[in-house]
Each structure stands twice: as C-alpha cells, then as structure tokens.
Amino acid sequence: MTDTADRQGAEHAAPVEAPSVGEALSRARCSVGLSVDDVALQLKYSARQIDALEKGRYGELPESAFVRGMVRNYARLVKLDPEPLARQIAGSLAAPAAIDDAVPFRKPIPFSVPGRHVNLGYAVLSLGALAVMAAVVLWPGERATGSKLTFVAAGQAPAAAPAPSAAEGVPVAVVGTPLAAIAPLPVAPEPAAAPAAAALRHRITLRFDRAAWVEVRGGDGRILASEVNAAGTTRVLEGVPPFKLVIGNSRHVHLSYGERPIDLARHARLDVARLTLE
Asked: Nearest to residue 208, comparing CAs of 260, 263, 258, 247?
C-alpha cells in the first residue's frame, strides 16, 4: 500500500511539459478559426512551411534567423506574445554539426609552382588583345552616303535650311504674317465626366461575437480589410463590388450587405466562410 501511495505522489509531482512552439501556434490558429492555407496567405509563406513549423520539422525550413522571424509574425497574427516563443524556438534549432563543416577554410589553396606557365598565359592574352585592337582600327567602317562637309567662303552667308512642308504636320508661318493671324491647332474635346463613384459604392457591416479573422477584397482588386477582429467589435467597409470575403470562425460573425443580412452558414466549410457579394 505504501508503494502505491509513493507512485501516486510521484505522478502528481511530475511537471507538465509545456507545449512546443508549433503546438502553441497551431492551438492559437484553431481558436481564431484559421486554416493553414489562411495563415500562409496572410503571412506570405507557403502552406508547406507553415505545416513544417507546426509539426517541428525545422530541417525543411531555411536558416534559423528566418525561422525566428516566421515564429514572430505567426504569433502576432494569432494574438500571442512573440518573444517567449522566439526564445523557445532558438533553443530547438540545430547548430552546425562541426566547426570544420561551418568554416571550410583549413585546406591549403593550391597554387601553380612553375612560373613559366603563368608567363606563357599572359603572353597569349596580350597577343590576343593586340590582335583585337588592330582589327578594330583597320576595319573599314560604314561610310554615310550623301553626307559630306561643305565649306563656306568668307563673307558668304550659309544657305538656309529647307523649311518643313505642311504635309509633314508642322504649321508654317508666312514671312510678314502676324503671329496672331496663325490659326491655332484644334483641341480635342475633353471626355464627359464619369458618373459619381459614390453611386457605385456599397457598404458591408461585420459584427463579431468572438474573435475572428476576416479578409475583404473589393471589385478593383484592393484589399479593404485583412486582420483579426476582437470579440464585441463592429466593422463597416465601403467599396466597389463584387466583394470577395474570407471569414474565419464564421459561426460567431454576423454579416450585412447594405440593409440585407447574409447567412454565413450556407457558405461555411470547416468554420471558414468564403463568398462573393455582387
């Protein structure tokens, strides 16, 4: 009976292991209703890199500085303190196996011992350079046809250049004609003003019972919102349709398009709603 009590006391005294960095990030991601693809799209990483980070496959990721920055960005996205996770991941990253592998500079650099081979190489290169220069100097260049120098005698005014013809599209003024008499070039009429953009804009209202991530993209391709919204808040967006929406934790989000409520349950899959509002 004493052995049983000792074993029970040891079990209660055993410390509970803290979750790994990947497990902590994965739990926080699920709590805000995001998938691995949503996180990859938001942080501009690939889904394979996000999955490798959550499952501790650090060998599939780039250098340690990249991994620490990746952990910090992921933690901020899911509302976690990034610094404790960055310190924890720093101890899990493997250092180089040996200093010889990390600094491969201990082998002697081979040099050519006999100098006559070097001198022969310089001589060949010099002769080649001289041959190229001689070819450039002696090669007959293209002579411009019909172009020549014209010498003008002293006291003789040079001939005036021919004036451009009216057929070339350049207006020609007659000598002695006042500048005011020259007809101005026709001005193209300005296009009619576009209809007011305000008439084309529509309003979207989002109300959050719990924290949820939302991305809204307007018809012009501009992202109107892409962030995690706190519980109890309301977000109003305006833009040009069609709107493309991705809403995480959609069971706890209420959406209205203008004055019309939208049922997100019809568009949700794994608690992430994806829909387009025309």
From this structure: 247
